[in-house]
Amino acid sequence: AQSVTQLGSHVSVSEGALVLLRCNYSSSVPPYLFWYVQYPNQGLQLLLKYTSAATLVKGINGFEAEFKKSETSFHLTKPSAHMSDAAEYFCAVSVRKGAQKLVFGQGTRLTINP
Amino acid sequence: EAQVTQNPRYLITVTGKKLTVTCSQNMNHEYMSWYRQDPGLGLRQIYYSMNVEVTDKGDVPEGYKVSRKEKRNFPLILESPSPNQTSLYFCASSFASSYNEQFFGPGTRLTVL
């Protein structure tokens, strides 16, 4: 069965510092991978997705993620954190070809220190 | 504006009192799904629907019902709510393919006393 593990339920960085949120997946077939962001009191919004094209995926708001098959990872990065990046981030893997079922990680809450 | 709407946004109820949370999308999506979000557990799928009159269980379906009579609507029904169903609920929709983005509603925070 597919699964997702996000390392670190809370991450805190200073404004301007590198953001690195870790995601490892388990899948018996080539996966589709997603990062979603949830701002306070809002639904989830897609940041970026990997669908077996380029392994380095660029998303909105300056975020990017690299698919590494050998490490079964899909870590999310941003070179310089902004206060507006404070939110909860979810990594998800899509399973079952022909059906859109997402399996989510536990989430990582990102705090930005001024 | 393309969106998924949910109502109500907040609901406090008592054990055993039937309730319905509505979900509607205006993007002509075939696929719709309900998730619940609990601290430390991420989002878990309750039920999903591939199209009108086609529904199936997700990972945590116990205590919930759904129906899909129209393409745009996918209500979630709790016939006899219990305190362990206190949670944040999200409806989502997408075109029916594994690589398509899911669009999420704003969430419904349910408290069952």
Topology of this structure?
The complex is a heterodimer of chains A (114) and B (113).
Chain A: E1 3-7, E2 10-14, E3 19-26, E4 32-38, E5 44-50, E6 56-58, E7 64-68, E8 73-78, E9 87-95, E10 101-104, E11 108-113
Parallel strand pairs in A: 2-11
Antiparallel strand pairs in A: 1-3, 3-8, 4-5, 4-9, 6-7, 7-8, 9-10, 9-11
Chain B: E1 4-7, E2 10-13, E3 19-25, E4 31-38, E5 42-51, E6 54-57, E7 65-66, E8 76-78, E9 87-94, E10 103-104, E11 108-112
Parallel strand pairs in B: 2-11
Antiparallel strand pairs in B: 1-3, 3-8, 4-5, 4-9, 5-6, 7-8, 9-10, 9-11
Describe this structure in words.
The complex is a heterodimer of chains A (114) and B (113). Chain A is an all-beta fold and 114 residues long. In chain A, strands 2, 4, 5, 9, 10 and 11 form a six-stranded mixed beta sheet that branches. In chain A, 0% of the residues lie in helices and 57% in strands. Chain A starts with a strand and ends with a strand. Chain A contains no helices and eleven strands. Chain B has 113 residues and is mostly beta strands. Helices cover 0% and strands 50% of the residues of chain B. In chain B, a hairpin with a 2-residue loop joins strand 5 and strand 6 (54-57). Chain B is globular. The termini of chain B are far apart. Chains A and B meet through strand 4, strand 5, strand 9 and strand 10 of A and strand 4, strand 5 and strand 9 of B.
State the gist of this model.
The complex is a heterodimer of chains A (about 110) and B (about 110). Chain A is an all-beta fold.
Taking pLDDT < 50 over at least 5 consecutive residues as the criterion, the unreliable ranges of chain A are none
* Average pLDDT, all residues of chain B: 94
The secondary-structure class of chain A comes to: mainly beta
SSE-based structural type of chain B:
mainly beta
Rg of chain B, nearest Å? 13 Å
Q: Number of helical runs of chain B? A: 0
Fraction of residues in β-strands of chain B: over 45%
Query: What does the average pLDDT of chain A come to?
Result: 91
